[in-house]
Amino acid sequence: MKTIVLKSVGFLASLALIVTSSNVNSTCFFVMHQPMLPVGFEKLKIKG
Question: Taken in order 20, 44, 23, 39, is the CA torsion positive or negative?
Answer without folding.
Answer: positive
